Amino acid sequence: MAAARKSRGTRVRHLGLAGRTGTVLLAAGIGVLSPASVALPAWAQQSSVAPDAGGYYATPPPVDPSKKPNDEGKPDKTYEQKTLCVQRSKLGGDQIDIKNRPWGQEYLQIQKVHELMRGATNSIGGGVKVAVIDTGVTAHPYFNGRVESGGDYVATPNGGKAPGLEDCDGHGTEVAGIIAANPTDQSIGFRGVAPDATILSIRQSSQNYEEAEKKSEAPPASSNSAPPASSNNQPGSELPPSSQGNGAVGGAADGTAPGQDKGGRQQEQGKTAGTLKTLAQAVVRAVDKGARVINMSVDNCRQADGKITEGEQQLQAAVNYAVKQDVVVVAAAGNVGDKCPQNDQPDPKSPKMIVTPPWFADDVLSVAAIDDTGGVADFSVNGPWVSVAAPGTKIISLDPAEGSSSLANLTIEGGKDPGPIQGTSFAAPYVAGLAALVRAKFPGLQAREVMNRIKATAQHPAAPGGRDNFVGFGVIDPIAALTAIVPSEADKAQPVPLPANLPPSNDRDSAPMIVALAGTGGGLVALLVTLFVVHSVRRNRPTTVPGRKTP
């Protein structure tokens, strides 16, 4: 009997130890995993950045139509050329065109897009006028005469050219080439997205022209950078895969090249030509001259301070005027640079840098850049205003040098080795070209409907609502944009099968969901601990010997 009591006592003590252990585990599980004590990731926590309630950060103030500027059609100041204009590279000897098709065209299936458009409309963007507000556009032979003079806010062009048809910097010609170039040589892989569209060129900015100094008669200085370079692929060769590198022909001793790095085409930088006020006037001018799409691969980047400047108000009113006049407005999202650091703050809805015109996302398609891996390019500025994304690296486009009839794939900046042409500047024209195709195929759609179609058919990122601050609603999908039925416009577009259902728009804050999931996980752990304790109790419960009473 004593032995039995001792045995039972031992079992009781063991049970007490198991019970205490279970209790401790249960308390620890509940305490650690309680929703009130869950450590949220940095991006889900409250940010120290000033919220929109204290000013204008993620979104600008409402449009003030009275701020729409009167188009003066001339430079705001007297600018003079300080740097020699872009020149064709001479180190390679013979000028041989690049034959391979750009990776961006392959990625977006532009060749199939062109076949689709020919079958549907017998044209690839014909009849659609696209305004390029930039550094001007050279009348390159691959435009086949489809470049119109739109105006000039920099200076009277040299050589008696029409306003807007001198591109001293070389930037605007490359941008326009991605929209509407159409080489006659079929062995050349490069083509514009809308090769039958018309370009309306408005020169609004230049880094080679600066505000004139009083009594200054100094001639243009020699540049410290060199022009874009061409490939040395041989004529008549098969088109190599777009992922392969291009052979390079070097650069001339003088001349200049499009500014691809350190911010790209920035407005209001020092004394160079280009302000938000003349940009706003150029938008109004493009509308009044019949443009149906506007491409702006120029922007202004500043620190977010909760305010809006006078120039920004004028530009906001101008792009709102454009959309109300049934014009699709496309703008580059901006490049990270010395004066434009990345928006990498904890709260994505409270950006530390503001980029315009992308900031006016209600009226603008803001375009981020991706690289050839399909991921967002590291130089592409993030922000709540980003609409979509398109290829922006390893660019091939028209050689902008005066008198050239070739292509360019490299640029030389500041005496450095040749480097690839890249930037959100060159992602935007992919979207502008697509907008021209959508306008040609669906002439009944209004500007906002065209913009919505491009966003709705993009390759959405895995984010709430199918949108994030890196690529917006995703990389554009031209085939889908030209074939899908968007429910809101079913009565205007021809019925064709949808490639896939699209997720509904959802801008909810994800922090509550994280807390809820953490609480659920804590409850589940607590339940498992409880079951463990109960199981231990049952396993260690003393058994009754048959035929004997337990005292």
In short:
The chain has 551 residues and is of the alpha/beta class. The chain has helices at 2-33, 103-108, 110-121, 171-180, 276-288, 310-324, 428-441, 447-456, 478-483, 511-540, and strands spanning 79-81, 129-134, 147-152, 198-203, 206-211, 226-229, 272-273, 293-296, 300-303, 328-332, 353-356, 365-370, 388-391, 397-398, 407-408, 410-412, 419-420. The strands form five sheets. It has a seven-stranded parallel beta sheet, with helices on both faces. A three-stranded antiparallel beta sheet has the order 1-5-7, with no helix packed on it.
Task: Give helix and strand order, one letter per element, not per position.
Answer: HEHHEEHEEEEHEEHEEEEEEEEHHHH
* Gyration radius over CA: 31 Å
Major sheet details: 7 strands, parallel
Order the strands across the largest sheet as they lie in space.
Answer: 3-4-2-8-10-12-13
Q: Looking at the structure, what is the overall shape?
A: globular
